[in-house]
Amino acid sequence: MESKDIDKILSNKKLIDKKFKSEHWDKYIGKKFDNLSFEEITKFRQNGLSDGLDNSRLINLDFLNKKILDFKNTLELFNLDFDKVNHFFMEKNIGENKIFINYKDKYIDLVQLDHIILYLLIQKYCLKKEDKNLNILEIGAGFGNLARMILNEYNAKYFIIDLPEQLILQGYYLTQFFPNKKICFAEDLPNLCLEEEHVKKYDIFLLPPSIKIQTNLKLNCVINSASFMEMRKKDIKEYFKIIEKNLKSEGFFFNNNRYFKDTSGEKIRLYEYPYDKKCKVIYSNQYLFFYRLHTLITKKIDVETNEIVEELSKIKKLAKNHEYPNFIPIKLMRIYQLIKKYLKLKDNDH
Questions:
Q1: CA distance 213 to 192
Q2: Which range of residues forms the domain containing residue 197?
Q3: CA Rg value for the chain
Q4: 236 falls within a domain
Q5: Domain at 143, CATH number
Q6: Count of domains for the chain
Q7: DSSP characters over 19-35
Q8: pLDDT digit string (tens) for 199-234?
């Protein structure tokens, strides 16, 4: 890897700012990236740098094998078997994850099982095989694994907006798989302004939350999976503004998040997301892999309807099984959960 690319990856450390983090990510990230070396980045999947994005290192092989069986059952819903999707798995163990199964020279691990299901849903409802010259935005992209899958299958410009700490991991990961693609780092953008000239010049864009988008990205698809639920309400609102401004007519928004989560320090409810009325519901259902998550896919249209309002109302009814009463403060619920966990551990000891 060239030293200039290493310098650009590490330069994201200068952008780290606590004001962009919810309580959730402030807790997970802490000071892990403060004195980061490049050698540590190369081992990010075994040393805790990717915890919260990818918990593969925290499981054992028995658990992974069970998840592979669940994955194979889920594939039947797409009329696929394991060998038909084997090409999606990594051929290089980038990040040096230690918990994996090797099958036909591919590395099978926990996070990839989930991302293949996400990819299959996106492919089925949002993208067509014949689509060319796509513009795709992923908000909160983990370490870049779903981006890798999509870029391997489609001719696309791929925009990622994420915390600087995650951009570091994505920068390393994606350069390993796409050495010939032009990657735009924050350092390549004067005053952190993304303009049309940059869009024409680069293939992959790793952008911090402080980015100023000075052109219409003309997006065919926007993806958010399991990160809005860990943000603050004000941050979700800002991202929805970006989506509304940059998503093309007939473009798709793939939203896969929990019905309810409070780890950001606020009670985040999917049915309260600030959707624009100019959208048609394409798919709405409990996520195939995890019952607390809901997959909501919409298409941007040119006229306002009440379709999304009605769908969010349906999701609100489903969410009753996943959230606690509104009058209970988050801090009190956390105390209750700690006590419950302690009593369960105590029972197990006996």
A1: 9
A2: 3-319
A3: 20
A4: yes
A5: 3.40.50.150
A6: 1
A7: GG--HHHHHHHTTTTTT
A8: 999 999 999 999 999 999 999 999 999 999 999 999
